[in-house]
Amino acid sequence: MKDTYDVVIVGGAVIGSAVAYYLAANPDFNGSILVVERDPTYLTASTSLSSSSIRTQFSNPINVKISQYGSEVIRNFGEIMQIGDDKPDLAFHSGGYLFLAGTPDQVGVLRENHVAQKACGADVVLWSRDELAEAFPHLNVSDIELASYGRSGEGWFNNTGLMYGFKNKARSLGVEYITDEVVAIGRNGDAVTSITLKSGAVVKAGTIVNASGPRAALTARMAGLDIPVEPRKRTLFVFDCAKTPEGTATVNQGRLPLMIDPSGVFCRPEGRFFLTGCPPVEDPAADWDDFEPRYEEFEEIIWPALAERSPAFEAIKVVNQWAGHYDFNTLDHNLVVGRHPQVRNFVFANGFSGHGLQQGPATGRGVSELIVYGEYRSLDLSEVGFERIVENRPFLEKAVI
Question: Distance between CA atoms of 226 and 221, rounded to whole angstroms?
Answer without folding.
Answer: 6
